[in-house]
Amino acid sequence: MAFAPYSISTQNNDHHDIVSIAQDTDNLSTLVAAIEAAGLVDVLKGDGPFTVFAPTNEAFEALPDGTLESLLMPENQDQLVEILTYHVVAGEVMSGDLSDGMTAETVEGSEVTISLSDSGAKVNDANVEAADIEASNGVVHVIDAVILPPEDNSGY
Length: 156
Prior knowledge:
Elements: H1 18-23, H2 29-38, H3 41-44, E1 50-55, H4 57-61, H5 67-71, H6 77-85, E2 88-90, E3 103-105, E4 111-117, E5 120-123, E6 126-135, E7 138-143
Parallel strand pairs: 1-7
Antiparallel strand pairs: 1-2, 3-4, 4-5, 5-6, 6-7
Helix pairs in contact: 2-6
């Protein structure tokens, strides 16, 4: 399985947790802002292990106009937490552990579906741009879309 190269500013991630890696990655700055607004920094700096499907800044920009701004408002923190925890799976799932059609339960409670093809891996409809970015408390896979929980679980 081939993934596009992705660079982060640190070479040794042994002491970098998931949040630190996101903070060190320019193209994940919107995710960092969302994690901070949701009050999830301490959780994602915790022991884990966690698997995080990390949407790029472009992924957040592709949301309908006003959506991100609305989610970042304090009164919408619950919805933001719901969406962000849909991007997190308990445990460390590396790309080599994936199989086509497998599902994984997210911290939010709903499942994501993994699909594999010659062009790469997908989480629901989001393409995996970079995989297996190891952290001290799990692993990060960078994706090109914000994935949303099923509508019966969230307001989105």
